[in-house]
Give the backbone structure.
Amino acid sequence: MMTQMTSLHEERLDHVFSVLKSTGAKKVLDLGCGSGSLLYRLVREPQFYEIVGLEESGVSLSQARTMMSEHLVGEHPKLRLVRGSYAEKNEKLIGFDAAAMVETIEHVYPNALSSVELAVFGQYRPKVLYMTTPNREYNPLFDLAPGEFREEDHKFEWDREKFRRWARGVAQRNDYEVVFGGIGAFHPDHGEPTQTAFFTRKDGVTRKD
């Protein structure tokens, strides 16, 4: 299972990077950036000239700071790392072309999801947001027991129907459109191991400033 998960992790990061690049975005938020695996890809792409990684864990942020040290120096560094939670409003995170939430929403307690929605979709309001999360239906193919999560720190793992119902509600309430997809090997009964939602803000999102 470990080899499968590692391979999926790299495939997922490459896929998210490609999607963000394809939007034409120049200013990108990585919400829940962890130790910087996606940031590592983003900072090497000339298209992105302003990148912010937000992370609540001080340990993970320190790891990201070490790995990204060369990109954090200078008068106007391309990358900024911010300690904080995307369940909290922050005016400094407004005005970005694109945002990513990669395998992070499942680490949020369900009773905090409304706060995440108010902050991310209500205040930050990126033009597009690409979200990935485990597809619970695929877990038996990883030899997980019923009810067992892929990581101990997960607070929940959604099946496809529940994820789509939640995401459609978020989109409707905040004037976004949403399209669903998946990453990884497709199974006819279980879908892909990673499920995705691509949110597009309705008010002039494709405009390039």
Summary: Strands lie at 27-31, 50-55, 79-83, 98-102, 128-134, 176-183, 194-201. The two ends are 44 Å apart (CA to CA). The chain is about 30% helix and 20% strand.
